[in-house]
Amino acid sequence: MGRIWSEENKLAAWLKVEIATAEAQAEAGIIPAEAARAIATRARVDPKRVAELEARVKHDVVAFTMAVSETVGPEARWLHYGLTSNDILDTAQALQVAEACELLLAGLGKLSDVLRRRAYEFKDTVMVGRTHGVHAEPITFGLKLANWYAESLRNRRRLEQAAEQMRVGKISGAVGTFGHLPPELEQRICHKLGLTPAAISSQVLQRDRHAQFLSTLALAASSLEKIALEIRHLQRTEVREVEEYFAEGEQRGSSAMPHKRNPVTSEQICGLARVVRANAGAALENVALWHERDISHSSVERIILPDSCALLDYMLARTTEIVETLIVYPERMRQNLELTRGLVFSGQLLLDLTAKGAPRQEAYAWVQEHAMEVWRHGGDFRERVSADSRITRFLSPAEIEAAFDFKRQLKYVDAIFQRVFGAAVSH
């Protein structure tokens, strides 16, 4: 990713646009064929030379054309013919974004593969589900991973769509009117570069495209934060159901406390997601420019595009590594499930009472009464309800026992996996 956003690659993309333009102009009879050949075969760009010239002329594209002209010879008078700076800048930027998206999509693919594999590994590993941070009803750890997998697929589709919106070029001139070159030439140049011409532009491509792209990166980063935040919660000492891999004997968790095993990578991901989201906000600010163009967006994009792509690329790699090496403690999950002494089955008990003819509001009050006593004073929830004649009037001992069987609540796990992964996915 660093190579894609390097100065060398940026200038190489500019040169690619200049060469494609010269070739298309020669094919259309606008410039001499020998000039296009000279530009295509001789043109070189030296970043150091461009920097030297830019320090003098205070304009990056002017410095670029001057530096390239020095390598072409007399035919250089046809270089940049009929173009404005942003014909080059925006079109070349689209090439860089396309390269970056290939890496990001590959990273999302790797993460999805790991999530799918580990979801099946823990498909039937029972744990407590939590709402508001409080024990709710049983789930499996595989379901949690499957949920992350489905979200990663949505992020991939969103990125593909955003990448397509960015796969556009413009060679429409200083205010987008094709004042010096015809629209047909723009079509030909973009085709050579593997881009689609924008239906309309001003001096620049409209920045709603870029805002969509950065917002998509921010969404993906937020999904990674969601995974990391859950791992951080599940690694807390009181919970300890999962744990980031810790290299014992080498890794150190604290300079002061040798016992520490901290979810440091997950914390890094949560922090970096904030930066990517902030960059998306800056991209939204770039949508509104003065008239046909100002350059208030330009300095911002020099930071937010490479930084956001690099950050998300890094975050994808680290999240994939975390999930791949995640240590899971099924026994602790079962212990935590039983921590509330049966309260997680209160919902099933209520349904069974209602199904057997108990008035719902009265049944709710009976079940809640025993649940609150267990919260306050301890004891076993199942034993309490089994001794309540109001409840046993409707449910037999066997039916009460069935209400406390987590397999009833998890009978559709396979069906959910089928919906998420499809029939072709191996268990």
Ordered list of secondary-structure elements with their pairings:
Blueprint lengths: L6 H21 L5 H10 L4 H11 L2 H13 L12 H37 L4 E6 L2 E7 H26 L1 E2 L13 H11 L2 E2 L10 H28 L6 E2 L20 H22 L10 H30 L1 E2 L1 H8 L8 H10 L4 H18 L3 H6 L2 H4 L4 H7 L2 H4 L3 H9 L6
Parallel strand pairs: 3-4
Antiparallel strand pairs: 1-2, 5-6
Describe the protein's architecture and organization.
The chain is mainly alpha-helical and 427 residues long. The chain is 64% helix and 5% strand. It has 18 helices and six strands. The chain has helices at residues 7-27, 33-42, 47-57, 60-72, 85-121, 141-166, 183-193, 208-235, 264-285, 296-325, 330-337, 346-355, 360-377, 381-386, 389-392, 397-403, 406-409, 413-421, and strands spanning 126-131, 134-140, 168-169, 196-197, 242-243, 327-328. The chain has a two-stranded antiparallel sheet. Strands 3-4 form a two-stranded parallel sheet. Strands 5-6 form a two-stranded antiparallel sheet. It is elongated, with a radius of gyration of 30 Å.
Summarize the structure.
This protein has 427 residues and is mainly α.
Q: Determine the fraction of residues in helical runs and give it as a percent range.
A: 55-70%
Under CATH, the topology of the largest domain can be stated as Fumarase C, Chain A, domain 2
- The SS-based structural class is mainly alpha
Termini separation (Å)?
34 Å
Contiguous uncertain segments of 5+ residues: none
CATH class of the largest domain: Mainly Alpha
- The Rg value, from CA coordinates, equals 30 Å
Order of helices and strands: HHHHHEEHEHEHEHHEHHHHHHHH
CATH level-4 homologous superfamily of the largest domain = Fumarase/aspartase (Central domain)
CATH architecture tag of the largest domain = Up-down Bundle
Average predicted confidence as pLDDT? 95
- Describe the largest sheet: 2 strands, antiparallel
The beta-strand count equals: 6
Strand order of the largest sheet: 1-2
Count of individual helical segments: 18
